[in-house]
Amino acid sequence: MTTETKIDDALIAAHGLSGDEYAKIIQLLNRAPNFTELGIFSAMWNEHCSYKSSKKWLRTLPTTGPQVICGPGENAGVVDIGDGQAIVFKMESHNHPSYIEPYQGAATGVGGILRDVFTMGARPIAAMNALSFGEPSHPKTKQLVSGVVAGVGGYGNCFGVPTVGGEVRFDKSYNGNCLVNAFAAGLADADKIFYSAASGVGMPVVYLGAKTGRDGVGGATMASAEFDDTIEEKRPTVQVGDPFTEKRLMEATLELMATGAVISIQDMGAAGLTCSAVEMGDKGGLGIKLNLEDVPQREANMTAYEMMLSESQERMLMVLKPELEAEARAVFEKWDLDFAIVGETISEDRFLIVHNDEVKADLPLSTLASSAPEYDRPWDPTPAAAPLSDVPAIDPIDGLKALIGSPNYACKAWVYEQYDTQVMADTLRTPGHGSGIVRIHGTNKAVAFTSDVTPRYVKANPVEGGKQAVAEAYRNLTAQGAKPLATTDNLNFGNPEKPEIMGQFVGALQGIGEAVAALDMPIVSGNVSLYNETDGTGILPTPTIGAVGLFTDLGQIIAGPAQDGDTLILIGESHGHLGQSALLTEAFNRIEGDAPPVNLATEAKHGDFIRAQHANIRACTDLGDGGLALAAFELAHAANTGATISTSDIGTLFGEDQARYLIACAPDAAQALLDAAKADKVPAQSIGQIGGTTLGFGDSSGDMRDLQTLYTTAFATAVG
Amino acid sequence: MKAAVIVFPGSNCDRDMAVALKAAGAQVTMVWHKEAGLPSGLDIVAVPGGFSFGDYLRCGAIAAQSPVCKALVDHAERGGYVLGVCNGFQVLTETGLLPGALMRNAGIKFVCKSQGLRVETTASDFTARYGRGEEIALPIAHHDGNYYADAATLETLNAEDRVAFRYAGNNPNGSVEDIAGVLSANRRVLGMMPHPERAVDKAHGGIQGEPLFAGMVGALASV
């Protein structure tokens, strides 16, 4: 008989629970919880699992549409791509672990998101990563970049999913708090999606995958030495990933699903056994009984508390059809994975945890699942940004060099060459050329993936910045010819208890909501990461938007590259908006002015125009930060040639007005496209030509080869 | 023409290999590593890329101890054809079917990109449809592609014209003499780090892996 740990104020605080929250637990139970129960409540009620600060606002997001098969609330979102097929996708952060231990933190971030996808019955077909690091000159940055990139690659490459896109940015606000946002998408049959709701009483609850160890127990809440003296040795709070086990778990899970044995399934992520069991019981309106002595364990003498809070990776929980147990067990034995019946569904509303015949927790399950606190945190609207004062004169080529010589805008080959971008042999567009494109295996369809946000904009103007993140994703998909389908949001912010941070969150969600509604890209999954602060300073608000677009025919792809002699046509209106621009930041080290305004109706109109005109377009890129100048360089670089743009006006070249694209058309197609634009009242003008050995902006020009050398070496020079 | 693709736990290019073989006209069977034997009447066995057994211990080392590898060696010793790509090449060196070893890339990092190669010999059914000295580009994606063999082995490989491919331009992994792929003495076992199965379809952006499959399947179909 072990001595029950005494619950005092310090222990409650160490579990991240406030006095009020603890009082609420006592009220719900009509008694004080024991130690294991306190741990279970802390796991269910922490910000990560309960979304207690964000839920009120997340509910306002548009999540439905004819293309949506399953919106937020399951392991991942599901959208219809026709022909009985579906794409299952989600993005999730692994920020804090990656800062503490970059390789394993990033690796297990990738592992977690892949698990979310295959838990629903989908084979992962693409991954992306949105990474935000501190200043290149900060002493920790290089180590974080190299560790995180190696970790992302180490996991995804071994698992065997192509990494087809992502973002890498640097800003001093991330010096003490890098962001690792991992995206994964999988392919499933639309009528064979697996959900987490258990059904049937007395059904076996089965544990699959790797064994349970003490890794990650209690995460950050386990810092106090007063209550961990029952643990022989402290474990790092960062979990360790094993992509080989995950690959086998995926194969075994998909094979098992095909046998028809699976009633419901849930992956074990944060607070693994606790959250997954409660989720399955609650969604099915059932209780769950677990016998912990049957849990496969990697270490000796683990307590109920440790097992319920362990975050060991590569594990699944499932409710199984009892008559198919032998078939199910055979599948897991084939793959040399643990398969253990660890409990059953029960009719009473109880979460009953038994360990060696001793009841370790006995909680009302539906209450535990649904009674998490929800806060309406006070928030202050972000004040309007001061107008931008005069921007000094600069030669446009020097301006471009400031951008492409910065790791923020330089070629990211140093990063993506460490990722397997082509495994599965369906990658049609690898990173570095706009959004990634993956063919749906064995069909003439494809899907495109992009991840976008401009955190500077969101800080200056959360509403417009939120809209812009969605609009940018919409344009990146459109520029390849894809029809944007749906979105996942990974909302990274500072401390929500500060009204100005909460104001950023509320504003950004308003903007995101308006944009996904207007552009018909409902949010089908997502993740919130708050408290991204160091020494009281928050990160730039970073609501990463991951989006998926569809090609119903491979012929819709705007393949590129441009060819010498192609006409360059600018779509959209340029007003020279330099506030919060890349030029201002990179060339003048100034962060000033308002974010560019986003007109969603214009975005939709221009996007529809690009798709309708795809046959006339040889290559296309959207205009994001860096504006026309950077877009022109990128189009020319992709074609390994030069280009001339007729203007040298800094506002036109580097302004970041929205709803714009730069396209290259064969000379005979250019007139047809301009005529169509005129008929559709879409602003379009011929502004230059592809070809030559230089990049020219009006009377200013630079040698293309020199610019390409700068572009392809700047990243490694800064942080390699 | 009958082909088998061996599947180890952790293989992840097995499907891609099967697709490429089928496209070239082969009938393909997938064979799980725990099988003690191979299907009868096989013309060629492909050992695919991936991370068999998680690359733990040493790439390919654990896979080489799988029951099916005994049958693989027997197949090769009977004069059967074997193609090992990437992790498959590592498995072939671990089984002893090919000489040498594959070490961690000289640059330490995993590297995935399109890589220039020079076809060094056309005297094999794998390479007969290329031109001798022809430069092609194939995708590479590996962490341990740094081929090494001792001086005597290299002398033999060169003297017997058994280097199938060398890297053209920058050597991506530090391999000795820029070697990217080698043949067995009977020229029927090929191991290579680049992925020809990722370049057999116009949608891949290149089809320079196609002659390898076409040559192999074509030669065997006419037997």
From TrEMBL, chain A:
Pathway listed for it is: Purine metabolism; IMP biosynthesis via de novo pathway; 5-amino-1-(5-phospho-D-ribosyl)imidazole from N(2)-formyl-N(1)-(5-phospho-D-ribosyl)glycinamide: step 1/2
Family, according to the entry, reads as follows: Belongs to the FGAMS family.
Name of the protein described by the UniProt record: Phosphoribosylformylglycinamidine synthase subunit PurL
**SUPFAM superfamilies in UniProt:** PurM C-terminal domain-like (SSF56042), PurM N-terminal domain-like (SSF55326)
Q: Which subcellular locations apply to this protein?
A: Cytoplasm
Natural source organism: Flavimaricola marinus
UniProt key word Ligase = yes
Q: InterPro entries attached here? A: PRibForGlyAmidine_synth_PurL, PurL_linker, PurM-like_C_dom, PurM-like_C_sf, PurM-like_N, PurM-like_N_sf
UniProt xrefs under CDD domains: PurL_repeat1 (cd02203), PurL_repeat2 (cd02204)
**Keywords recorded for this protein, A-Z:** ATP-binding, Cytoplasm, Ligase, Magnesium, Metal-binding, Nucleotide-binding, Purine biosynthesis
Any single GO CC term annotated in Swiss-Prot or TrEMBL for this entry: cytoplasm
| Single GO MF annotation | phosphoribosylformylglycinamidine synthase activity
Q: Which reaction(s) does the protein catalyse, per the Swiss-Prot or TrEMBL entry?
A: N(2)-formyl-N(1)-(5-phospho-beta-D-ribosyl)glycinamide + L-glutamine + ATP + H2O = 2-formamido-N(1)-(5-O-phospho-beta-D-ribosyl)acetamidine + L-glutamate + ADP + phosphate + H(+)
Subunit annotation: Monomer. Part of the FGAM synthase complex composed of 1 PurL, 1 PurQ and 2 PurS subunits.
Q: Name one Pfam family in it.
A: AIRS
Enzyme Commission code? 6.3.5.3
| Active site residues per record | 48, 94
Automatic annotation (TrEMBL), chain B:
Q: What is its EC number?
A: 6.3.5.3, 3.5.1.2
Keyword Lipoprotein included in the entry's annotation? no
Report which residue ranges the record marks as coiled coil: none
Could you tell me what reaction this enzyme catalyses? N(2)-formyl-N(1)-(5-phospho-beta-D-ribosyl)glycinamide + L-glutamine + ATP + H2O = 2-formamido-N(1)-(5-O-phospho-beta-D-ribosyl)acetamidine + L-glutamate + ADP + phosphate + H(+); L-glutamine + H2O = L-glutamate + NH4(+)
Cell compartments where the protein resides = Cytoplasm
Give the GO biological process terms.
Answer: 'de novo' IMP biosynthetic process
User: Could you name the Gene Ontology cellular component terms for this entry?
Assistant: cytoplasm
Q: Pathway it belongs to?
A: Purine metabolism; IMP biosynthesis via de novo pathway; 5-amino-1-(5-phospho-D-ribosyl)imidazole from N(2)-formyl-N(1)-(5-phospho-D-ribosyl)glycinamide: step 1/2
State what this protein does.
Part of the phosphoribosylformylglycinamidine synthase complex involved in the purines biosynthetic pathway. Catalyzes the ATP-dependent conversion of formylglycinamide ribonucleotide (FGAR) and glutamine to yield formylglycinamidine ribonucleotide (FGAM) and glutamate. The FGAM synthase complex is composed of three subunits. PurQ produces an ammonia molecule by converting glutamine to glutamate. PurL transfers the ammonia molecule to FGAR to form FGAM in an ATP-dependent manner.
Q: By its UniProt entry, which HAMAP family does this protein fall under?
A: PurQ
Q: What is this protein called?
A: Phosphoribosylformylglycinamidine synthase subunit PurQ
* Lineage summary: Bacteria, Pseudomonadati, Pseudomonadota, Alphaproteobacteria, Rhodobacterales
